[in-house]
Amino acid sequence: MGLAALPRGLGGGWARLRGLTGRPGGTPARPGGAAAPAAPLLWPRGAARPRGEGTSPAAAPRRREVTLTGPRYGVRRRPFRALSGRDLAAFERLVPGRAVTDAEQLAPFNVDWLRSVRGCSKLMLKPQTTAEVSQVLRYCYERNLAVNPQGGNTGLVGGSVPVFDEIILSTALMNKIISFDKVSGILVCQAGCILEKLNEYLEDQGFIMPLDLGAKGSCHIGGNVATNAGGLRLLRYGSLRGTVLGLEVVLADGSVLDCLTSLRKDNTGYDLKQLFIGSEGTLGVITAVSILCPQKPKAVNLAFLGCQSFAKVLETFTTSRAMLGEILSACEFMDEKCMELVERHLKLSNPLTGSPFYVLIETSGSDSTHDADKLNNFLEQAMTSGLVADGTVATDAKKIKTLWSLRERITEALTHDGCVYKYDISLPVGKLYDLVMDMRARLGQSAKNVVGYGHLGDGNLHLNITAESYSHFLLDAIEPYVYEWTARHKGSISAEHGLGFKKKQYIHYSKPNEAIFLMQRFKAMLDPKGILNPYKTLPTSSEGNMH
Amino acid sequence: MGLAALPRGLGGGWARLRGLTGRPGGTPARPGGAAAPAAPLLWPRGAARPRGEGTSPAAAPRRREVTLTGPRYGVRRRPFRALSGRDLAAFERLVPGRAVTDAEQLAPFNVDWLRSVRGCSKLMLKPQTTAEVSQVLRYCYERNLAVNPQGGNTGLVGGSVPVFDEIILSTALMNKIISFDKVSGILVCQAGCILEKLNEYLEDQGFIMPLDLGAKGSCHIGGNVATNAGGLRLLRYGSLRGTVLGLEVVLADGSVLDCLTSLRKDNTGYDLKQLFIGSEGTLGVITAVSILCPQKPKAVNLAFLGCQSFAKVLETFTTSRAMLGEILSACEFMDEKCMELVERHLKLSNPLTGSPFYVLIETSGSDSTHDADKLNNFLEQAMTSGLVADGTVATDAKKIKTLWSLRERITEALTHDGCVYKYDISLPVGKLYDLVMDMRARLGQSAKNVVGYGHLGDGNLHLNITAESYSHFLLDAIEPYVYEWTARHKGSISAEHGLGFKKKQYIHYSKPNEAIFLMQRFKAMLDPKGILNPYKTLPTSSEGNMH
C-alpha cells in the first residue's frame, strides 16, 4: 500500500520527490519506496482510545486490579459527609433514572485510563441540563458531599477519577450541540460533546475544531477546556485561552455563572472564564462551551522525516517554520525508541528506518498547488542541506491518518511496555531532548525504556520511562530529579496534562509561592467547603512543602 | 503617485487588474486610475498619534480647557488620604529625581487623549524597575493613597487618567527589552516599551508584534495588555489572551507576582495572569510582559475596495476568508461618512469614490507569488460577482501605509469634527451596520455625523456620533438606547476599548449580575483598600443599578 501521488510535483514518496527535484547526492531512496504501515490498525486515528480493560484485546494483559489511591499514595480522606440513603433518594429525584449505584457499572469510572489511580465512588450522576447540574451541586454543597466532575476520563494525571468516595458527576449525557454559526465559525455546545463528534459535525459544514488530540474519540470538550488541553493543532490555531469565547459554569454552591458569549471580542470587566480553563474541575463544573472554529483546510499534506541528530531535528523545525510559514499546522517529533514500541506492541510499521529521530510536519492550507510548492521547496532544502536523511509524504486523508497513528499511538504503545512513568514537560525547544539523554544515562539498566516525543513546535516534551513493574527505587531516581532539571531550565513540569492528583505536590517547581498562595485564595473563595474535585491541582497547606 | 505594480499578475490598480482578468461588464475603471492619497500625511501610519494640545497643528482649535471629571460627571471622591509633604519626601527617596510635581508638566497626564476627562493629580512617579514599583505601592497601600497606573495614555474610555488626585504611576521609564529568543519568537520586555518601538526591534530580526493599532506610536505594551487591546492583527494572530505567555505584576500591597514565564504551554495551576489582562490597572500594575511574536511575513498586500451595500461588504468578507484562507491578515470596513471626514479634516484623499462602503483587505504570507495568485483569484471573483464596484491594490510598504492611514486615522479625523460620542461594540457580524443605520434615523438632524467603521472580521463596530458641542439632550437620545440595542442582539458594549471610567456603569448590559458580583469579589480580594485605579471598570454597589 503505497502513498498516493501528491498533486503538482510532490510525489508519492521520498524517492519520487528526489527524482523530481533532480538534485545529485543526498541519501539513497529507501528500498521499497515509502510504504505506509502495512499492519491493520486496531484503533486508527479518530477512533476511541481504548479505555480500561475489556475495550481492547491488547489491553488484556493489563487486567490486574488497580490499588486504591488512598492507601497507595497515603492520602487521608477529608471530612466530607458519606453518602446516605436519604441522599440517594434525593439524587434519584433530581436526575431520575440517571443515578448509577451498581458497583460493576461504576468500576470503569473509578479508575483512570492509565490504571494508576482508583477511587471507590458509590454513585455516578448523569445530568442532562445545566439546571440539573446546579440542583445537584446545591444539594452537595449544603450536605458537604464531595464531587468529582468527569468528562471522557482520558486524563493522564489522575484528575478525572475520585480519590475516595466522591460522587462522580458525569457530563456524558450533556452532549447537545446548541448552535453553530457558519459566518463567524462559532460553535456553542454542551460540555459532554465528544471532541471527535464535534469535529465531524463541523467538517460537514466546512470547519474544524481548533484542537485535536489522540483521545479525541472519548474526551469531552468540557474536559478539554477544564484541563486546557493542548494537542496537535496548537501550533497553528493557538491555545484554548484564545479560542474559547465563552463558558457556562456551575459553581460549587450550585449558582450558575453565564459567560457563554459568542463574540470574538468582549472587554467588559475581568475575563472570568479564563479561571475555569485549566482549573481541572476544582473551581466549577463547565456545562457549556462557546468556541471559535477555523475553516477546514482545503489541502493537507503530511511529511514524515528521519533525522540523524536532535540538532538536525531542531533545524528542520526552524527551516519548516521559515519556509512553510502560515501553512505549517503541526511539527511533532519522536525518537527511534518510540518507533520501536509502536512497531513491537501495536504492529504498526515504520515506513522509514535507521534514523534516531523522526519528525512529522503537517501543512494545512487553502490551495493545494501552492502548498505542494511550498512543501516541495522545503523538502528540497531540508534534503540538500543534509537536515533530513530519509522521508515520505502523504496527501490523501487515509494515508495521512496512517502516518499520524505512528505518533498518536505512542502513548498506547507505552502502556503495553510495562509500568509507565509519564512526564509532560515544557522546555526551551533547544533543551528539549537533553533531558531524555540525561535521564537515560542516569537510569541505565534500571529502566526498560526511556523515550522522548512530543510537540516540537510548542517546546513540549513527553518523557516516558517504562519498567517491568512499579518500583519505589526507580521512582526515587526519577523524581524529584526530573522536576529539578525542568525548574533549572525555567520549564514547566506540566505543559498540557495539568496537575490533577499525581503532580499537584510538584507545582512549586513551576510556580512561585505567591502564585500558589493566590490560587489557594481563589479556590477558597469559589469553593469554601472544598467539595469540587478535592485532592487535585493545588497542594494543601500541609502538602505544600513536600520538597 | 500611483501604486506600484504587484508582482505576477496583480497590477498597480484596479483598472489594470480588470484588464488582466479580461472580464467584460462590471464597473468602469475610475478615471485617473487608482491614485494614492496625494496630500502629505501629518501623522503617517506608525507615527505617534497626536496627544493633547500643542502636538498637532490641526488640534489647535481644541485648546479649550477640559472640565474636571469630578464635577462634570458628579462623582464623589472616596476617602483616600491626600498627599502630604512627608509623602512627597518619601517618594523622592523611592524614585529620586523621578517624582514630578510641577503643574504644567503634569497637565497632559491628567487629561485623556479625547479630552473628555480630567483629573487633578499633584504627583507623577516614574519608576524604572519592578522593585521601585513594589516599594511605591507598598507605601501607597500602607498610607491609603490612591494610584492611577498610566502607560501611553491613549485609552478611549477615560481609564488612563486620574479621576481626582490619584498619584500617576507612569511606566514611561520602564522601557527595556529584557530578552528576545529567535528560535521561539518570545519577547520579554518591561511594561513601558512603546508598541511601535517593539515592532521595529522585532522587524530587524524577522519577527513582528502580534498586535497593531493606530496608537502604536505612543501606547505602551503594558497598557495594551492591561486593556486587552485588540487592533488590526487580531483576525490573524488572535487576542492577547493567547499571545501573552507571562506577566510580572505588582499587587496593590506591593507584593510582586512573578508569572513571567516564556513557555508556549504551562498547565501548572490556575492561569493567574489572565485576570490582569484586561483589568485596566484595577487589580495590579503590570511591570513586564512575555509575548509570543509571529514571524514577519515575507509578502504583504493590501486591497482597498468599494462596495455598494453592507450586504456586499459582508459577502466580500466571507468570500475573502474562503479564498484567501491562511493569508488573510485584516478585514476592515468603513462607511462613506468616514471617508468624507478623513478627506475634509486631514486632507487625505480617497483613491476610490462613489461607494457607500469601503473594505480594506490585507494579506500576509510567506510567498509573494502564491499570495498574489490568491488575491488575484479573490479579486476576480469579487468583481465578476458584483460584490465589489471599485478597488485598488498596494503591495509595497509605503503605499500600504498610505492606504492604511485612511482607516487608521478615522479616530483622529473624528476629533476634528466636534464633540464625539464613541461606542465600541461587538455584534454578530450580520448585524454590524444595522445599529449605525438605526442610530442615524433615530438622531436625525440632532447629530452632525453618525459614522460606522471597524474590524469587520472580528464583528467589532466603532460607532461614532459627532455634534457641534456636548449636549445632554443628544446623549439621552443615544444612551441607554445604544446599549439596549447591543444587549438585545447579544453583543458587547465594549469590544476592545474596555470600560474605564466612562463605560463602567453600563457593564450590566453585557454581563450578568453573578459575574459582576464575582468580579467585585476578586477586586476586594486583590485590592481590599481599592487604591488601584479607583472609579474604573467595575460599578460600585450604589452605581451598580443605574439603569
TrEMBL record, chains A, B:
Xref: Gene3D superfamilies: 3.30.465.10, 3.30.70.2190, 3.30.70.2740, Uridine Diphospho-n-acetylenolpyruvylglucosamine Reductase, domain 2, Vanillyl-alcohol Oxidase, Chain A, domain 4
GO biological process terms on file: malate metabolic process
Cofactor(s) needed by this chain: FAD
Pfam families, per the entry: FAD-oxidase_C (PF02913), FAD_binding_4 (PF01565)
Annotated spans, Disordered: 17-64
Sequence ranges assigned to domain FAD-binding PCMH-type in this UniProt record: 117-296
EC assignment: 1.1.99.39
Subcellular location: Mitochondrion
PANTHER family cross-referenced by the UniProt entry: D-2-HYDROXYGLUTARATE DEHYDROGENASE, MITOCHONDRIAL
Superkingdom of origin organism: Eukaryota
Location (main, coarse): mitochondrion
Family listed: Belongs to the FAD-binding oxidoreductase/transferase type 4 family.
Catalytic activity: (R)-malate + A = oxaloacetate + AH2
Organism for this UniProt entry: Falco tinnunculus (Common kestrel)
Molecular function in Gene Ontology: (R)-2-hydroxyglutarate dehydrogenase activity; FAD binding; metal ion binding
GO cellular component, one term: mitochondrion
Protein name as annotated: D-2-hydroxyglutarate dehydrogenase, mitochondrial
Coiled coil, from the record: none
Key words of the record: FAD, Flavoprotein, Metal-binding, Mitochondrion, Oxidoreductase, Transit peptide, Zinc
Compositionally skewed regions (Low complexity) per UniProt: 17-49
Role this protein plays: Catalyzes the oxidation of D-2-hydroxyglutarate (D-2-HG) to alpha-ketoglutarate. Also catalyzes the oxidation of other D-2-hydroxyacids, such as D-malate (D-MAL) and D-lactate (D-LAC). Exhibits high activities towards D-2-HG and D-MAL but a very weak activity towards D-LAC.
